[in-house]
Amino acid sequence: MTMNDDAILNGLTAEPLPKRSLENISLIREDRMGEVSDGYHTFNELYKHRCLLYIALLKCHWRMCLGSSEIPCDSMTRFVRFRHYKGWFCLGLIDENIGQISYHIPDEYWDACSFAEEKQWEFDGHSTDDVLERLEKLIKTI
Description:
Elements: H1 3-9, H2 19-22, H3 43-67, E1 77-85, E2 88-95, E3 99-106, E4 117-118, H4 128-141
Parallel strand pairs: 1-4
Antiparallel strand pairs: 1-2, 2-3
């Protein structure tokens, strides 16, 4: 085992992982997984980017719905949030034409999502692939 392999196994590196080490990624200590990097960003950074981009997307879409008759937003489109479990809430877009798109968001962003109605909704069982497909549909409608 090389020194680099030992550091990876102990979760002590945020350095880019060599390709051969990606096979052993499950060996990294769980409490250090967010520090793993692709050479540009860590998982922690990418997750924060995803949260902020999703909030920005929904907030912009919400504002466009308020001020435009050209965007197909009416009672069929809802922006909702609810406390899901300690430290996290669920933020969702529910659209009868597109379907549900939701993400778990850290509580630190709760106030930034005040545009969304506080209401738990009935989960439609969407998968990650469903969300990706629905995001593509959303992009085409706005």
